[in-house]
Amino acid sequence: MNTFMLEIVTPDHLVYAKQVYSLTVRGAEGDLGILPGHVPLVTPLQVAPMTIKSDAGVTTVAVHGGFIEVHKDKVTVLAESAELPSDIDLERAEAAKERAQRRLQVRGKQDEIDHRRAELALQRAVTRIKVSTSKGQQ
Ligand code: ATP
């Protein structure tokens, strides 16, 4: 079966680097499936779990924004932050989710920027919780 190199990089470190069979990411316009030989492209990513198929089975990674670059034999994901299931602190994510939900419930004086920030924090927390609780799939 054909493979390609996948690298997931954040400003801090290299999160993942392996030959993979396929991956699915949430692009700006919806889910994007990448198989070997995909046409080159660069597109922004949403905050969402990414699914990777490799010899190791199915792995999910919490990817928080950034970009995907598809080249001929290599795909690079540049994200603000990204975590493998084993790196996720579930309690911290649950606490961040509750905090964000509380902020979203406060109506009235709150300005739009705070609201957007809370929405993004909620998306990050929900993504982490999904990835952390899908450990069994690996
Ligand atoms: P929190 O409010 O808990 O800090 P956050 O969504 O604001 O969450 P980020 O700004 O996205 O956090 O991330 C800051 C750093 O902390 C990144 O390196 C990220 O990988 C790490 N991080 C955030 N939440 C978790 C978590 N639940 N488990 C493991 N690492 C996390």
From TrEMBL:
UniProt keyword Transmembrane, yes or no: no
InterPro entries to which the protein is assigned, alphabetical: ATP_F1_dsu/esu_C_sf (IPR036794), ATP_synth_F1_dsu/esu (IPR001469), ATP_synth_F1_dsu/esu_N (IPR020546), ATP_synth_F1_esu_C (IPR020547), ATPsynth_dsu/esu_N (IPR036771)
Sorted UniProt keywords: ATP synthesis, Cell membrane, CF(1), Hydrogen ion transport, Ion transport, Membrane, Transport
Domain (ATP synthase F1 complex delta/epsilon subunit N-terminal) ranges: 4-82
Keyword field contains Membrane: yes
Localization, UniProt: Cell membrane
Protein's name according to its UniProt entry: ATP synthase epsilon chain
